[in-house]
Amino acid sequence: MELSKRVQEMQFSPIRKFNPIAQKAKEDGKKVYHLNIGQPDVETPACFMEAIRSFDEKVIAYAESGGITVLQDAIIDYFKMYGMDYKRENIMITSGGSEALTMTFLSIINEGDEILMPEPFYTNYHTFATEAGGKLVPITTKAEEGYHYATKEKIEAVITPKTKAICCISPGNPTGNVLTLDEMKLIGEIAKEHDLYIIADEVYREFAYDGRKVTSFGMLDEIADRVIIVDSVSKRFSACGARVGCVVSKNADFMEGMMKIAQGRLCVPTVDQIGAAALYRLPASYYDEMREEYCGRRDAAYEELMKIPGVICQKPGGSFYITVKLPVDDMEDFLMFLLTEFEDNGETVMFAPAEGFYITPGLGKDELRIAYVLNQKDMRRGAELIRLGLEAYKNK
Ligand SMILES: Cc1ncc(COP(=O)(O)O)c(C=O)c1O
């Protein structure tokens, strides 16, 4: 018996694959600062559980395949805050942004189709593309340039007759790069000229700092038919385990195709949708508070990381990740050292080696990503442990 070629081609998540080694370090008595995964420590707003507690049905029935209307309506009102106008038929509820992306790829990609992907990128796109038989084509970016990719030259250089879509994660994971509305317009013009879909992964939409405006491809009416927005409650509302997200699009054909897949998987858990509806109705002040909290964490982590000799990093403008380049040949080997040999006062740190965030072989070996999902004190300590660990690694 043999497994499918598809699954044989897939990789394990570079974010999760070192977990057993970190677990062993903990069993050996070390404290490990987890800067490897985007799991915030911020409390999920109480309205999530309150809404679930007051849900009083005798039967937890299947929901509509496109989602419950209470949640769709809450999402419609949420987008209105930013001047975007959607109807229920434009919103499909999914099990997190992950299912939104899987279903989107399955709906628009044929075997061998190419999808433009600025690299480094959220590593699970490898899985989404492989599942659908698509090929990710990199738009390579650099730490020295703040991982900037939104130029006509860079994007058009990799477009071929097989290109079907461009994926834009903004604010970006793992780079923290935030697209301006002008950059989105430029990408929109390119997409129009080459007849491409835009997969706009905006799960970090509000995480934009230093006075940057919240931007969305949904603000551009002229390309509304080719924009597919992916959204999620995971990060914005610190509700990763709720597994609720959505796809938002004004392209009726696309939404009809998506519905065939959605009906095949029946529905998203009803109770989680009830909680998510309450989250989407939080007032604008919630986003301001959250932004301030994360901005403080970014500053703390960035300041400490910049103390590492040889570090290359431009201060990221959004999301909750920082990717840096260090004078290290093999980041996975350095991480193994941190988890198995190094400690400072019984403590060590874990990050995500960036190689798995690239398509181009060999790139990212000297880069790492941290998620600033812990409080400022822990972020400083985590970044300090990377610096101290690097000193010890170099003197090994
Ligand atoms: C850019 C991006 N898109 C999508 C997801 C998927 O998130 P979820 O399925 O929890 O909504 C993540 C999770 O880290 C992400 O970083």
In terms of quaternary structure, the protein is single chain
CATH-assigned homologous superfamily of the largest domain: Type I PLP-dependent aspartate aminotransferase-like (Major domain)
Biggest sheet descriptor: 7 strands, mixed
Strand order of the largest sheet: 2-8-7-6-5-3-4
Mean pLDDT: 95
**What small molecules accompany the polymer chains?**
pyridoxal-5'-phosphate
SSE-based structural type: alpha/beta
**What would you say the CATH architecture of the largest domain is?**
3-Layer(aba) Sandwich
The helicity comes to 25-40%
**Rough outline:** globular
Number of helices: 13
Strand content: 5-15%
The CATH class assignment of the largest domain is Alpha Beta
**Number of extended strands:** 12
| Total domain count | 2
Overview of the molecule:
- There is one protein chain.
- The protein is α/β, with parallel strands linked by helices.
- It folds into two domains: 5-43 and 285-394, Aspartate Aminotransferase, domain 1 (Alpha-Beta Complex); 47-282, Type I PLP-dependent aspartate aminotransferase-like (Major domain) (Aspartate Aminotransferase, domain 2, 3-Layer(aba) Sandwich).
- 37% of the residues lie in helices and 15% in strands.
- It is built from 13 helices and twelve strands.
- The strands form three sheets. The protein has a seven-stranded mixed sheet, with helices on both faces.
- Helix 8 links the parallel strand 5 (163-169) and strand 6.
- Helix 3 packs across helix 10 (270-280), helix 5 (96-108) crosses helix 9 and helix 11 (284-305) runs parallel beside helix 13.
- The chain starts with a helix and ends with a helix.
- Residues 38, 96-98, 122, 169, 173, 201, 203, 232, 234, 240, 245 line the site of pyridoxal-5'-phosphate.
- Pyridoxal-5'-phosphate binds at residues 38, 96-98, 122, 169, 173, 201, 203, 232, 234, 240, 245.
